[in-house]
Design goal:
The complex is a heterodimer of chains A (about 280) and B (about 280).
Chain A lengths: L2 E3 L5 E3 L2 E3 L6 H13 L4 E3 L7 H14 L9 E6 L1 H6 L5 H11 L4 E6 L7 H14 L2 E7 L3 H9 L8 E5 L7 H9 L3 E5 L7 H4 L2 H9 L4 H11 L2 E5 L4 H8 L8 H8 L10 H4 L4
Parallel strand pairs in A: 3-4, 3-10, 4-5, 5-6, 6-7, 7-8, 8-9, 9-10
Antiparallel strand pairs in A: 1-2
Chain B lengths: L2 H10 L2 H17 L6 H32 L13 E7 L1 H6 L7 E5 L5 H11 L3 E11 L1 H7 L13 H6 L6 H5 L1 H4 L1 H15 L19 H16 L3 E7 L6 H12 L6 E5 L2 H9 L1
Parallel strand pairs in B: 1-2, 1-3, 3-4, 4-5
The chains are: A alpha/beta (about 280), B alpha/beta (about 280).
């Protein structure tokens, strides 16, 4: 699996697997095993998905069963949810400590603010910095961030720039300007819902179908390769272990620059997740 | 355990005290079936049963009304993206605006505080594209009546996360049994909803010389926050003041603008009838 280097020198897999709605131990165990066997060790979770514990257990079980693999090979991303920010007025360190204890892990590879809740955003980032400095999280970042959120951090005297920003991105929400400005700041951009939940609007899109035919692959693979070409780390969610291999095969598609531009031209600023409905005042 | 625990338990399980009360009524009624007061008790029992049926019917209707007025659930569909505008406002705006749902996101609602109007804007502005328009309708008179900060009448609109901000518990029980928790307000909402649905509302609101538009200190502060909120998110704010005075609209708008200390970069207008109100959305 290719890796990207974060601004703090840590490595992150170039494709991660999401755990949203995969809340059974068996399902997660299968996905973790299928991913690891295909060389993919990056996973994404959150307290609100209810998958932190089962995902961690699945990883620990896999490490126990496979002597050649260690915890260090895996990359676990977790988040701090909005309610946690509100409840502790931004001082989320107790939640991180409790999570580590609960999931039986010494650290989280990447810890993200799930929603930049306006009132406690800057205070939470201060706590994130101390969590990072204490080693409980190896890297830190933000989800659903716009440039104004990065500016808020700068204006609040933050010492550490987010290493990762995780936003909704797909062919219908390209956010070219934001992505390039974040990348110019050395921030690695992750994409959630990279396949637009495979809604018919995407899976039956004529341009994408034509490209899939051209490269003799699936629409999902074309779109994933498009993300990779844009230096974006897609977070793919699947409940079918066989899809893991299919998604990873996207790395091998020789998508031409012209086709990357063609897919980008599908942009219509279409959001699946309306930010303000998830986080009022966002 | 103890009285608070029992109270809490009964509040959470309302069916239990209701069944108990009915059991007592039935038992007492049965005990008197052969007494000389039988007729009175049968009459009381029948009246109570009729009242209960009406109460249940009204409760159901209020639930329906609140479901229609309050925000729908998350991501129920993929409509309402990249809309040109959002309309936020309270009772007058709700009663008189005819919003074209293809162009403008409807976030007006019945009788709520300005704080709640602002919360509605905070919750729904993502439906609007960058540089989209925010029509913010303000009724200073209602603002005086309800208050600018969160009020009990906001409960039907409230977002669960907003509740968390306010340190309150779930509004679900209130929503499930509005007639028990908030009888007066629920009945008024249901009546207004019924009138709007059946076009029974008067064509315009009442104008009076005594209702001169005044922007309170609190409202001024909140509107300043609304303005900076919109600017930060690259939204174009258009403030529309509901004019209930006999003073003309231009004069009222100028007065409000002066009171807010806003220059001409923000649109401020005043409207005094339904047609004027709707023409704001059309422009």
């Amino acid at each position: 699996m290719n890796k990207v280097i974060l601004s703090n020198g840590k490595e992150m897999p170039q494709m991660l697997f999401g755990s949203f709605q995969l809340d059974t131990q068996q399902a997660l165990g299968e996905i973790v095993a299928a991913s690891a066997e295909n060389g993919a060790f990056g996973f994404d979770t959150s307290p609100s998905y209810n998958t932190e514990q089962p995902l961690s257990k699945a990883i620990n079980d896999y490490v126990k069963k496979n002597s050649g693999v260690s915890r260090e090979d895996f990359f676990i991303t977790s988040k701090i949810d909005e309610w946690q920010m509100i409840q502790k007025k931004g001082d989320i360190r107790p939640f991180v400590a409790a999570t580590l204890k609960k999931i039986n892990q010494p650290y989280i590879d990447l810890l993200l603010i799930h929603w930049p809740q306006p009132e406690y955003f800057a205070a939470t980032w201060k706590s994130f910095e101390s969590v990072y400095e204490s080693g409980m999280a190896k890297s830190i970042g933000i989800c659903n961030a716009r440039l104004r959120h990065i500016k808020t951090l700068e204006n609040s005297g933050a010492n550490i720039c987010p290493m990762v920003v995780q936003n909704e991105l797909h062919p219908f929400l390209v956010d070219e300007q934001l992505v390039s400005e974040l990348q110019a700041k050395g921030i690695v951009v992750q994409a959630y819902s990279p396949l637009f939940r495979m809604e018919p609007m995407l899976s039956q899109n004529e341009t994408l179908l034509r490209l899939a035919e051209k490269y003799n692959c699936s629409v999902a693979q074309v779109v994933l390769k498009w993300h990779l070409e844009r230096k974006i780390v897609p977070i793919v969610k699947t409940s079918k272990p066989q899809r893991v291999k299919e998604n990873l095969a996207a790395f091998n598609i020789p998508l031409e620059a012209e086709d990357v531009r063609l897919i980008s031209s599908l942009d219509m600023n279409f959001k699946l997740f309306l930010e303000s409905r998830c986080c009022p005042g966002y | 355990m103890g009285v608070p625990y029992m109270k809490n338990y009964l509040k959470k399980n309302l069916w239990l005290p209701i069944i108990c009360v009915w059991a007592v009524i039935v038992a007492v009624g049965a005990a008197f079936l052969n007494s000389p007061f039988r007729g009175i008790f049968i009459a009381v029992f029948t009246a109570a049963a009729a009242a209960a049926i009406i109460f249940i019917f009204l409760n159901k209707y209020c639930v329906k009304v609140f479901k229609a007025l309050a925000p729908t659930s998350y991501f129920s569909d993929l409509r309402f993206r990249n809309m040109d505008a959002i309309a936020v406002g309270s009772t007058i705006a709700w009663k008189y605006l005819n919003i074209d749902e293809e162009k403008c996101y409807d976030a007006v609602g019945i009788r709520r505080s300005n704080a709640m109007c602002f919360n509605m804007l905070k919750t729904y502005f993502s439906h609007v594209h960058t540089n989209g328009t925010v029509y913010y309708f303000v009724d200073p008179l209602e603002s005086d009546a309800i208050g600018d900060y969160a009020s009990p009448c906001d409960f039907i609109h409230i977002h669960r996360l907003v509740f968390l901000y306010l340190g309150m518990s779930s509004p679900m029980k209130r929503r499930e049994n509005p007639m028990i928790y908030d009888t007066d307000f629920s009945l008024r909402c249901a009546a207004a909803y019924f009138c709007k649905k059946h076009s029974l509302l008067p064509k315009t609101w009442k104008l009076s010389a005594s209702h001169a538009v005044e922007i309170s200190e609190d409202l001024r502060g909140q509107l300043a926050e609304v303005r900076s909120f919109c600017e930060e998110r690259e939204l174009c704010l258009k403030l529309v003041v509901i004019n209930r005075s006999t003073e003309n609209n231009e004069k009222t708008a100028a007065k409000v603008r002066k009171s807010l200390g806003w220059k001409n970069d923000i649109s401020v207008s005043a409207v005094s009838c339904s047609d004027e109100l709707n023409s704001v959305l059309m422009n």
